[in-house]
C-alpha cells in the first residue's frame, strides 16, 4: 500500500502537469520523467489512468489540452480568489492537512498577498487521510465496507462522507438490518473495503440532503416544525436556510419572521434553538416548544447559581 507521502508526491506532480497543460504547454513523457525523477512508465500511468477524466489528448508522443480548455498565462482575479478561498478552508481543517494542501496550492498560486481569511472551523483529519482514501474507493465503486465502531464490528453500504458543523461522519446503511446511520469518522477503526457490490438507493441521498445537522435520525419519518426568528437574526436564515426544506411562512413589519422546516427528531431542532437562544423559538409542535422552554429554564437556573 502506498504511504501518505507517496500520495503527496503524486498529487504534486499531477497538479504541476495539469497546470502546465492548462497553460497551453505540450508535454512529453520522457521529458517529464526526467524532470520529476520517475520512470516513463509512471508518467504514462499518470496520463492513461490518473488524468484520464481531464480533457487531454495524445499528439504523437506528447500530450496537450484539448482545444477550448486552455488558460491564459495570467490567471484572472476570480480564479486567484477561488484558489485562495480553498486554501484558507484547507488550512482550517488542521495542521497536517493544511500543510499538505498549502504545498499543492503553492503550485497554482501567483505570489501575491492573500486578501482572504477564513475562520471555518473544521476537524483536523490529517491522521485519517488513508481511511478517507479507502472510503472514497468504496464509494466510487459501490463496495461495502467493514470496520469496528464502539466495540462492535459493522458491515456498511457507504453513501457519503459528511461534515456536520466541522465534524466528519460516514453516512451509510448498516447490514443486515439496512438501517441508515452516521458514524463519527475518528471512531472508525480497522476499515476494509470488501468485494461486495451494491446498488445505491436514491431515496437515501434525499434523506441526507434534508438533514439539518448531525442529530438527524435518517430512519424516522420527518415532521414539520414552525419557528419564530427575531428581527436581529432573521436575515441569517434568509441568507443560509437551516435546511433545503426551510420555507418562510410569514414576514413581520419589525423584520422578524416565521419559518418552517422538516425535522426527523426533536434534538435536531433543539440543537439549533439552543444556538440562537433567545432569538429563535419554537411555535409548533407544542411538545417541542415545551422542551425548548424547559431547556431555557434550566439554563436560567444554572446561570443564577453563578451570579
What does this structure look like?
α2 (29-36) packs across α3 (40-50) and α9 (266-276) packs across α10 (286-305). The radius of gyration is 25 Å and the shape is elongated. β10 and β11 form a beta hairpin. Mean pLDDT is 84; it is low at 1-7, 72-78 and 109-113. It is of the alpha+beta class and 307 residues long. The protein contains 10 helices and 12 strands. It has helices at residues 4-22, 29-36, 40-50, 77-93, 95-105, 129-141, 202-209, 231-239, 266-276, 286-305; strands at residues 27-28, 56-59, 62-65, 143-149, 152-164, 167-174, 179-184, 189-197, 223-229, 247-251, 257-263, 280-284. Helices cover 41% and strands 25% of the residues. The strands form 3 sheets. A 5-stranded antiparallel β-sheet has the order 7-6-5-4-8. A 4-stranded antiparallel β-sheet has the order 10-11-9-12. The longest helix is centred in the last third of the chain and has 20 residues, at 286-305. The protein folds into 3 domains: 4-65, Arc Repressor Mutant, subunit A (Orthogonal Bundle), CATH 1.10.10; 126-201, SH3 type barrels (Roll), CATH 2.30.30; 223-305, Alpha-Beta Plaits, CATH 3.30.70.
